[in-house]
Design a protein that fits this description.
- The complex is a heterodimer of chains A (456) and B (913).
- Chain A has helices spanning 11-29, 72-78, 104-127, 145-160, 184-198, 207-217, 225-239, 241-244, 253-258, 290-297, 330-343, 385-400, 406-409, 412-415, 419-437, 446-455, and strands at residues 2-10, 52-54, 60-62, 64-68, 91-93, 131-140, 165-172, 201-206, 268-274, 317-326, 356-361, 373-381.
- Chain A is α/β, with parallel strands linked by helices and 456 residues long.
- In chain A, the strands form two sheets. Chain A has a ten-stranded mixed sheet with strand order 5-4-1-6-7-8-9-12-10-11, sandwiched between helices.
- In chain A, helix 6 (207-217) crosses helix 7 (225-239), helix 10 packs across helix 11 (330-343) and helix 12 (385-400) packs antiparallel against helix 15 (419-437).
- In chain B, helix 5 runs antiparallel to helix 6 (111-118), helix 15 runs antiparallel to helix 19 and helix 33 runs antiparallel to helix 34.
- Chain B starts with 8 loop residues before the first helix and ends with a helix.
- At the A-B interface, helix 9, helix 11, strand 11 and helix 16 of A face helix 26, helix 30, helix 31 and helix 35 of B.
């Protein structure tokens, strides 16, 4: 089966959201937790092969590689009903089981150590697919394994499979609460560098925004991980529906993201989803039409990235893709677009053509939804840079005090100097600059200035 | 009451009372007393004693009671009385009788009773009603009605008589029997007259019998012969015997003439084309006139006879024509019967020696009256014959139908009957056609024509057609269309769908109607035919659609068309492109169909297409279009979908060509999408690789990215437009329409609408040719850009590798403890880098700028053209392509024309944009 996607889930967070993701996919494709196709789902026109492959005995096995440096989360998975879903050979847990201690450097170093074993798994999976489209990596950027080992994996995958796409679902830490991981800014910065340089597309899952949404929009006072994760899994599964339910367009990952990402580095996407409910029973009384959905998707409160409003920069959309599911009258799409344009609900880049792309996708017949129409927005918006700026600011604060660097100095990469940190900061700063530049009409010649600067 | 002197007025009164009350003498004393009291009261009627007036009133009353015969009889008797002078006080008697007839006690009493009373002094035999049956009277002579005429409902005098008895007869205001021999018949009186005719005939015949039965009393003969009074006003006296013979001879002649045979003195003149009376024979002018009138009948008869005789053996006339002849023949037979009756009477008159003048037999005048009805009928028939000459089949029926537009009910019913007979073959063919689909129309009379040369695959479209001239006027065009469709559907089911299962249409129609068959078709213009057609149409169409949907999986094929020829199965198309790309990049002439078919197989097996019905999958095929020089594989490759059997009727070769055109367009657009994702992918990977070692490329690459993102946007929006505004919307509509379609024609039509809409909106129609050319140029430019970029990448990669080697050498040398680089090496490296930078970079940059510039110009041009296009839906495309107004800002012209076109649309649609 062509255009397969291999999913790597790293670390505590990555495995948790990964597990939710697979649960969701199983439900949508009518696959039981054991990987057996349910009786009611045998006559599907859905494409299961993108994310699953079929074992000799009709079992559907996810193309997933589970990696962690400590056994806790993976053990939870292995004790869940979904234990038999995964290929046990695809699960890698560090033998010492000590984890990365929330230290990027440690995670990175351990990743390097175990790379051979891990790449055995990945190579096997890659060989098992007809024409691999790319990798999807689930991780968080703040912890140790997800960020450190994740960074290593991204780099390595890029070397090994230079022609394959790397898409990541990266969970950004919650800024609203004080993290117990003190080195979080370092971890984030170092991971961001890899995401900028080595990933092709990063779907930003901002815990800050997710928590806010849970509290404000879903009225959950203290949202649990699983509640947040179900939001994440919804986003992940919806963003892949066009791959799993093929239609006229957007049937492969590359087609999906190529239109969203105009220049290689501006590949950080934010998401929005509406209508938002974690509990399917809490049916909303609102009527949902395509226009409603598309309009709501443009509202910042539905965005799953918390961005600060910055007055002096006209942040704007570089691109938008709305994936609409449900009973949609295709004739409504045009009307909705017209309305949005008339009302100027969305601000677009001044340096090139841009518009809202709409993909209508089929919905899984096996999952009942309380809503007639639901929509996911994948958007490339320049204001995402504020997230990186925040990250830089925190890093700078920490770095100024040279705080908590001992942990890092233990590892080879930082033994001699902290150039890597400085370099990362530079890369992230450049990214922020480029996003800022993209709000201006002269972005077309942005590289030229840089090159000129570089030469002079 | 025996003591009462029977001769005295009291005695008479008593017996009168007895008679009236129909009671025994002893029981009537109260009535007698009452009568005496009334008589004794000396009351006199307040009316003037005008005998004439009163007689008229009585007659009117009789007529009102629909007893015209009696009225006539009364008139006769009254007249006789007047001339006889037997009764003096006639008015008083009449007045009494008149009042008695509607006395309060006896509302039911008939004037005949009065007549009987009046004729008390006359022999009782004569008091019988005209229909008084005399025992022993010979049956056939008693009535002119044809045997069984009532039940068969056939044409002829009797049938009309029967038919009209049920009609509400308008009340004639007067019955001018006593005024003239040939009463001017107004339409209102026609019915009464017709009935009267029958009665009269019967009367006259029975009256002829009466002399034998009667007691020889003079008055016996006079009573019935009163019917013949007409002759009295003509002739001065009954004893004028000089004309007597000649009238009888004339009658005989006339009867010959009635049959179209030359008589002794009345002969057919071929020059005048009419019957003329020998001038030499002394016939009074009045009779000549009458004879002229009567001979018209003969002329008409001849005309009809000639037609019937000439056509009855003419097979080319067809069944309808034959029916027409049969109808005429039948009418003629009826007519002959009348002639025979008349002849018999003339014969009898002669045998008995009854003088014409005596009033018992036929006279010319009577003949004129009696032949009035047949004359009208023959006239109408002759008209029909004239109009129907050279016509056949449905056309003939139409002509007959046009004669239905007459106000005269008798003629109307004649025509209606003829029409029924004439249209019978049509109904039969139709029945065969709508229930069985058989077309037994050997004479091309039916309005459905079949072309036997048409093959099965075109059966639906070409085999059957309407013969417009043969559509009977009582069948509307819509009905005819539906009838055509019904039979066509049945034939389609039988021949193309090869479904031999019996159709239950007939049963359905029958149960829906609960009427016997005969009824269905004799009613021609009313709703029942419509109902039959509708039911049969619904039923057969339903069966056909069922067969198409279940046995032939029409919907599945439709979906397959969409999935494969309209690229709906995205993953399959994508994979197919992946696999085909190396082949299609080669020149078209080097392609081998079998290779491509193999690739197609692989693509099907590898994608979700594999889950499709194997029957559908085996129909998918590769087709190579005609190769023109310079074409590459992309230009000529096409998918094909084989259809056969009934489905072919929807997916005709013409629509297949349309599908292929659409496929070609979509395939090109898809290729652009494909190419651009390839470009994008290369950019992403190479960007990561190159920039590390060749940073000076950054600006160039950035430009490439910007340009390609612009292209991606263009193509993607184009594709979204195709998806939503073209394919999805049209498909939605098609799906809805197909589901609702009542018959195959609707399905075909909506499918055609679907294809036409796609063709139009995909810029494939003639109007959009320029746009399409412009679009192709844009596509070509994208390909050009790709190759330029690839060349650039190759060169850049070379450079990168050289630099890396140089660096490696430095590293190696350093490791060996030597100088990293020699001056020479460094110099070499530097010049090469400068060359790369100055020559290659600047060259590529300018090349790229050219491409970029021309691309933008073209897109702007394209947008301008879109805005000027008449098809409003194409503005959706321009709207999408320039959603954020990017091109607007760059091209002031676009701004202007766009606002103009917006204004235009606003004005046209009359609402806010």
């Amino acid at each position: 089966m062509p255009r397969e996607i291999i999913t790597l889930q790293l670390g505590q967070c990555g495995n948790q959201i990964g597990m939710e993701f697979w649960k969701q996919l199983c439900m949508e494709h009518g696959i039981s937790p054991e990987g057996i196709l349910e009786d009611y789902a045998t006559e599907g026109t859905d494409r299961k092969d993108v994310f699953f492959y079929q074992a000799d005995d009709e079992h559907y096995i996810p193309r997933a590689v589970l990696l962690d440096l400590e056994p806790r989360v993976i053990n939870t998975i292995l004790n869940s009903p979904y234990a038999n879903l995964y290929n046990p050979e695809n699960i890698y847990m560090s033998t010492h089981g000590g984890g990365a201690g929330n230290n990027w450097a440690s995670g990175y170093a351990q990743g390097e150590k175990v790379q051979e074993e891990v790449f055995d798994i990945i190579d096997r999976e890659a060989d098992g697919s007809d024409s691999l489209e790319g990798f999807v990596i689930c991780h968080s950027i703040a912890g140790g394994t997800g960020s450190g080992m994740g960074s290593y994996m991204v780099e390595k995958l890029n070397d090994r499979f230079p022609k394959k796409l790397i898409q990541t679902y990266s969970v950004f830490p919650n800024q609203d609460e004080i993290s117990d991981v003190v080195v979080q800014p370092y971890n984030s910065l170092l991971t961001l560098k890899r995401l900028t340089q080595n990933a092709d597309c990063v779907v930003v899952l901002d815990n800050t925004a997710l928590n806010r949404i849970a509290v404000d929009r879903l009225h959950i006072q203290n949202p649990s991980f699983s509640q947040i994760n179900s939001l994440v899994s919804t986003i992940m599964s919806t963003s892949t529906t066009t791959l799993r339910y093929p239609g006229y367009m957007n049937n492969d990952l590359i087609g999906l993201i190529a239109s969203l990402i105009p220049t290689p580095r501006l590949h950080f996407l934010m998401t929005g989803y509406t209508p938002l409910t974690t509990d399917q029973k809490a049916a909303s009384v609102r009527k949902t039409t395509v226009l409603d959905v598309m309009r709501r998707l443009l509202q910042p409160k539905n965005m799953m990235v918390s961005t600060d409003r910055i007055r002096h920069i006209n942040h704007c959309f570089i691109s938008i893709l709305n994936i609409i599911q449900g009973e949609v009258d295709p004739t409504q799409v045009h009307k909705s677009l017209q309305r949005i344009r008339e009302r100027k609900l969305a601000q677009f880049i001044p340096w090139g053509p841009a518009s809202i792309q709409v993909a209508l996708s089929r919905k899984s017949p096996y999952v009942q939804s309380a809503h007639r129409v639901s929509g996911l927005m994948l958007a490339n918006h320049t204001s995402i840079s504020s997230l990186f700026e925040r990250c830089l600011k925190q890093y700078d604060k920490l770095r100024k005090r040279e705080a908590f660097l001992e942990q890092f100095r233990k590892e080879n990469m930082f033994k001699e100097n902290l150039d890597e940190l400085d370099n990362s900061r530079e890369v992230v700063q450049q990214l922020v600059d480029e996003y800022h530049a993209a709000t201006r009409p002269d972005y077309i010649s942005w590289g030229a200035q840089e090159a000129a600067e570089g030469r002079s | 009451m025996s003591k009462v002197d029977m001769k005295s007025p009291a005695g008479l009164l008593h017996s009168l009372v007895c008679r009236i009350t129909e009671k025994k003498e002893d029981d009537v004393s109260p009535h007698f007393q009452y009568a005496l009291r009334v008589l004794g009261s000396h009351f006199t009627p307040s009316v003037e004693s005008d005998e004439f007036q009163l007689a008229e009133r009585i007659k009117r009353k009789l007529v009102k009671q629909r007893r015209e015969g009696d009225a006539a009889r009364f008139a006769e008797l009254h007249r006789k009385l007047q001339s006889n002078n037997v009764v003096k006080n006639r008015w008083a008697i009449l007045y009494l009788l008149y009042n008695l007839s509607h006395g309060p006690d006896r509302p039911g009493i008939k004037i005949t009773a009065g007549e009987a009373l009046f004729g008390q002094g006359l022999p009782t035999d004569a008091t019988s009603t005209p229909f008084y049956h005399v025992p022993g009277m010979p049956g056939p002579l008693r009535t002119p009605m044809p045997p069984g005429g009532d039940t068969t409902g056939s044409s002829g005098i009797s049938s009309i008589h029967t038919a009209d008895r049920s009609d509400p007869t308008p009340t004639p205001q007067s019955f001018p029997a006593s005024y003239g021999p040939t009463p001017g018949i107004t339409p209102a009186q026609a019915a009464a007259q017709r009935q009267a005719l029958g009665n009269r005939l019967a009367l006259s015949l029975s009256s002829r019998q009466q002399p034998h039965l009667g007691n020889g009393d003079m008055s016996v003969a006079t009573v019935p012969s009163g019917r013949g009074t007409a002759s009295l006003s003509l002739r001065p006296g009954a004893d004028n015997t000089s004309f007597e013979l000649s009238e009888a001879a004339l009658l005989r002649d006339v009867l010959f003439v009635f049959q179209g045979i030359n008589g002794k003195i009345i002969k057919m003149s071929s020059t005048a084309d009419r019957f003329v009376i020998d001038r030499k024979v002394g016939v009074p002018q009045a009779w000549r006139d009458l004879l002229g009138k009567l001979s018209e009948l003969g002329w008409l008869h001849n005309k009809i006879r000639k037609f019937v005789d000439s056509k009855i053996s003419d097979r080319a006339l067809g069944l309808v024509g034959q029916s027409f002849c049969a109808a005429l023949q039948h009418e003629l037979t009826e007519y002959y019967r009348l002639v025979a009756v008349l002849d018999a009477q003339v014969q009898q008159d002669q045998d008995l020696g009854v003088s014409v003048g005596s009033g018992g037999g036929l006279t010319l005048r009577r003949l004129v009256v009696w032949s009035y009805e047949p004359l009208q009928r023959l006239k109408t028939l002759a008209c029909l014959v004239d109009s129907c000459k050279g016509k056949k089949g449905g056309a003939l029926a139409s002509v007959v139908h046009s004669y239905m537009q007459t106000g005269d009910p008798s003629l109307r019913s004649l025509v209606k009957h003829t029409l029924n007979v004439v249209s019978q073959p049509i109904w039969e063919i139709m029945e065969q056609w709508i229930y069985e689909g058989d077309l037994e129309d050997n004479y091309q009379e039916y309005f459905v024509a079949s072309d036997p040369t048409v093959k099965e695959d075109r059966l639906w479209h070409d085999k059957y057609s309407l013969r417009k001239s043969m559509i009977p006027a009582f069948i509307t065009r819509e009905q005819a269309d539906k009838i055509l469709l019904i039979g066509k559907t049945i034939n389609f089911i039988r021949q193309v769908c090869r479904d031999r299962s019996p159709l239950k249409t007939k049963a359905v129609v029958k149960t829906g109607e609960a009427e016997e068959e005969g009824d269905l078709f004799t009613r021609d213009v009313d709703g029942s035919l419509q109902q039959v057609i509708d039911t049969a149409y619904r039923e057969t169409s339903r069966i056909l659609l069922d067969i198409l949907h279940t046995k032939y999986k029409f919907m599945d094929h439709l979906k397959a068309m969409r999935r494969y020829l309209l690229l709906g199965q995205g993953d399959f198309i994508r994979h197919l492109m992946d696999l085909l790309e190396p082949d299609l990049n080669k020149p078209a002439s080097t392609l081998y169909l079998h290779n491509l078919t193999g690739i197609l197989e692989t693509a099907i097996r590898a994608t979700n297409a594999q889950f499709d019905d194997p029957d559908i999958l085996k129909r998918i095929d590769v087709r190579l279009l005609e190769v023109s020089p310079g074409d590459c594989g992309w230009d000529v490759f096409s998918l094909d979908y084989h259809v056969d059997g009934p489905i072919n009727t929807v997916f005709t070769p013409e629509t297949k060509i349309q599908y292929l055109r659409v496929f070609n367009f979509l395939w090109r657009a898809k290729r652009m999408e494909y190419t651009l994702t390839e470009i994008w992918k290369d950019q992403m990977t190479i960007h990561k690789l190159l920039l590390k070692t060749v940073p000076e490329l950054a600006s160039l690459l950035h430009r490439c990215h910007i340009l390609s993102s612009e292209m991606v946007h263009f193509i993607n929006q184009m594709q979204y437009y195709i998806t939503f505004e073209v394919l999805e919307c049209s498909w939605d509509e098609l799906w809805k329409k197909v589901k609702e379609s009542p018959d195959l024609d609707h399905v075909i039509a909506s499918h055609q609408v679907f294809l036409d809409a796609i063709i139009q909106h995909c810029l494939l129609d003639d109007e959009s040719r320029e746009l399409l050319t412009q679009l192709r140029t844009i596509f070509d430019l994208i390909i050009k850009f790709q190759s330029a970029e690839n060349t650039m990448y190759k060169k850049a990669e070379e450079e990168m590798n050289l630099r890396l080697r140089f660096l490696r050498r430095i590293q190696e040398n350093t490791e060996k403890g030597k100088w990293g680089v020699t001056e020479l090496d460094e110099e070499e490296e530097k010049t090469r880098m400068e060359e790369f930078r100055d020559k290659f970079l600047s060259k590529t940059t300018s090349q790229l700028r050219v491409i970029s510039q021309s691309y933008q110009d073209m897109v702007q041009n394209f947008l301008l053209m879109l805005n000027e296009h008449t098809d409003a839906s194409l503005r959706f495309l321009s709207f999408r392509l320039d959603f954020n107004g990017h091109y607007h800002q760059r091209e002031p012209k676009l701004n202007r024309s766009l606002s103009v076109s917006y204004a235009r649309t606003r004005r046209r649609s009359g609402k806010d944009p």
